[in-house]
Amino acid sequence: MTMLTPPLKWAGGKRWLIPHLTPIWQSYSHMRLVEPFCGGLGVALSLNPKRALLNDINPHLINLYRWMQRGVDAVDLSPEDNNHATFYAKRDQFNMAIAENRANTPESAVLFYYLNRTCYNGLCRFNRKGLFNVPFGAYKHIPYLTKHGFDQYKPLFERWEFACGDFASLNIGDDDFLYIDPPYDVPFTSYAKEDFSWDDQRRLVAWLADYANPMVVSNQATARIIDLYQHAGFEITLLSAPRRISNNGDRTPAQEMLAYKNVCITSADRHHPHLS
Ligand SMILES: C[S@@+](CC[C@H](N)C(=O)[O-])C[C@H]1O[C@@H](n2cnc3c(N)ncnc32)[C@H](O)[C@@H]1O
Question: How much is the pLDDT for 169?
């Protein structure tokens, strides 16, 4: 089976971690993969589990995956749709569906896919009224999925379960392997509204403490995140994340943390953190 690429552009995609995750997953691939923060499916599509429970709090994302699982007939995209006027018309259509409480249809799923691929940087931002407000991305060429393109995912998605909600609402069973990729810990920011606060980071670690399942967590390797996971009994590895442009334009590579619990790690290049 050829490996499918993620259908969306999604912030925080972890396909680059696959060489580190695959050797661990190989020992547990008979288990169900559970991702409480599945995002763009960068990890699930690469690990290709037979069974998976994939959850995210974003309802539009999960609506799209569920329609891809059922089969989407509403695909009507062509390269000509990549223009300013069509983008804003489709954004209005999507926002009208949100305002009228009908954003769970196949039409809205395809609109969300179009907006994600066509908007600036694949961002997913909503205003105070809950309406999508990311501007046009002005990309030269966008290879939109056709009907056939959507259908390729169907056999795989039929084997997986999609859930939408806060991570803590998931029911974890004994046969579950957890890969946990929450939004990055971003200390020292002056953002008025944090999507995933420090309290949420701590709530997540407290929730994980209830389970004896094999689990791997990734996050930005801030001192307080490393401290939090070390105190919770996780084994820590540090990695250099690919360069990414942060909000202040800083291009220095970020350090990524992988935290493990109840797993056997055979990797030779394990780096232990030295914290001052
Ligand atoms: C770093 S991204 C995951 C990226 C994913 N691993 C990939 O490779 O594409 C984090 C995700 O967590 C989701 N999220 C934020 N808060 C959440 C919560 N309380 N419960 C579940 N998901 C949440 C966001 O919508 C986002 O998709």
Answer: 98
Q: Are residues 43 and 177 in the same domain?
A: yes
Q: Supply the pTM of this predicted model.
A: 0.93
pLDDT reported for residue 242: 81
Domain that holds residue 219: 15-57+165-188+196-261
Please tell me whether residue 201 adopts helix, strand or coil conformation.
helix
Segment 254-260 shows an average pLDDT of 93
Which of 8, 37, 172 gets mutated to test ligand 1 (max ligand atoms within 8 A of its CB)?
37
Number of folded domains that form the chain: 2
- For 87-121, the pLDDT digits (tens) are 999 999 999 999 999 999 999 999 999 999 999 99
Ligand 1 centroid, distance to 99 Cα (angstroms): 24
Comparing C-alpha atoms, which of 104, 144, 133 is closest to residue 7? Answer: 144
Closest C-alpha residue for ligand 1 atom 23? 57
Please tell me whether residues 171 and 35 are part of one structural domain.
yes
Q: CB within 6 Å of ligand 1 — which residues? A: 10, 12-14, 36-37, 39-43, 56-58, 166-167, 181-183, 195-196
Give the nearest ligand 1 atom to 58 CA.
25
Q: Rounded to the nearest whole angstrom, what is the distance from the C-alpha of residue 204 to the centroid of ligand 1?
A: 12
Distance between CA atoms of residues 252 and 213, nearest Å:
35
Output the CA–CA distances (angstroms, integers) from residue 140 to 113, 117, 122, 225, 261, in the order listed.
18, 12, 15, 39, 45
In a domain, 138, yes or no: yes
Q: Which two tokens stand for residue 49?
A: 């589990």
